[in-house]
């Protein structure tokens, strides 16, 4: 499931952390994979703490078979 890209500016030290985590490989492939992992974990934490309301992915056109690892 390809999505349009999002531009983001990060401090050089944050980029270095992302690169280090990507090299470790346990948090995703490349910077985008690591960012995706941390964003999804943060959203799941907010859902668990009931800071935001749970939504149904089907309402946004998602299907389980669409899931893939497009991390680069």
Structure notes:
The chain is mainly alpha-helical. It has a domain at 12-52. It contains two helices and no strands. The longest helix is centred in the middle third of the chain and has 19 residues, at 30-48.
Question: TL;DR?
Answer:
The protein is mainly α and 72 residues long. It has a domain at 12-52. The protein is built from 2 helices and no strands.
> What string gives the helices and strands in order?
HH
Mean pLDDT: 87
Give me the Rg, rounded. Answer: 14 Å
Q: How many extended strands? A: 0
Shape descriptor = globular
Profile the largest sheet: none
| Backbone structural class | mainly alpha
Total helical elements? 2
Strand content: under 5%
Fraction of helical residues: 40-55%
Write the layout of secondary structure elements.
Blueprint (H helix, E strand, L loop, with lengths): L11 H13 L5 H19 L24
Helix pairs in contact: 1-2
What attributes does this structure have?
72 residues; mainly alpha; 2 helices
């Amino acid at each position: 499931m390809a999505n349009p890209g999002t531009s983001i500016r990060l401090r050089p030290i944050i980029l270095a952390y992302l690169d280090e985590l990507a090299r470790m490989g346990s948090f995703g492939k490349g910077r985008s994979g690591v960012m995706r992992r941390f964003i999804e974990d943060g959203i799941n934490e907010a859902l668990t703490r009931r800071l935001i309301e749970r939504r149904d992915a089907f309402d946004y056109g998602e299907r389980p078979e669409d899931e893939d690892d497009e991390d680069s």
